[in-house]
Amino acid sequence: MSLEHIHLSQKAKDQLIKLKRITGIQNWNVLCRWAFCVSLAEPSPPPDTKIPADSNVEMTWKVFGGQYSDIFFALIKERCKQDGLSLDEHTLASQFKLHLHRGISYLTANATIKNIAALSNLSS
What we know:
This protein has helices at residues 10-23, 28-41, 61-65, 69-82, 89-109, 116-120; strands at 5-7, 58-60. It is mainly α. The chain has a single domain (5-123), classed as Orthogonal Bundle (Arc Repressor Mutant). Strands 1-2 form a two-stranded antiparallel sheet. The longest helix is centred in the C-terminal third of the chain and has 21 residues, at 89-109.
């Protein structure tokens, strides 16, 4: 597993489609950035579950992070340190995938998100 290519589950794809519809944000990577940050804000580590890469949605790390890819990488490294995890490539990629999918689920389950303004108010 590597951070170079990010593959989403079918469930995450379906959830992102819903989020795209209600927020008006059309880019997967923008929604995924929000989701990743929402999960990082949760103090508990995400449950260690097997997440299938069974959808046709994939992106490179550079597409996910854009000009902030180094910052997102530093964030997952710091979170792994805080959680007492190894900083090897496999652990970083696995934890990133767990945080990303948990964040997508959190955003989808949040009934207050009915538009882009509600999404942006999450950080307030």
